[in-house]
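Q: Convert this sequence to structure tokens.
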Amino acid sequence: MRFIFLCMILTLVSCNSSNTASNTGLISSKGALKHISFEGGDGSSLVRAVIIKNAKNGYQGIQAQSLYIENRYGIRNLDWRMKSQELKQERNKTFDKITIERIAAQKEAVIYFDISEFYGKL
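A:
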């Protein structure tokens, strides 16, 4: 029981000490994703989509999306949970529309990501 509590505290501390998500220039504190940054807008619409930069492949891009959401909304499955993910093609770009549920607030949030740079890369 104490071990579980200690793990939870360490997880919360590590999440709170990471960079907060802003609309530009967030660099991952996670080792394998340090080269990834976020540009563009706040993700509130297609026009203001968060642009994921420097992901080497789709796997890293998806990890970057989760990192961005965690920096903005907290710990997955504790503070928020994924409700849906929708691929969109507009203006010769590829977007992910991610809908999450903010658990404590019992509200939905939608975040748009421009994934054109890494979409389809293996």
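Strands lie at 26-27, 37-40, 50-53, 80-90, 93-102, 107-114.
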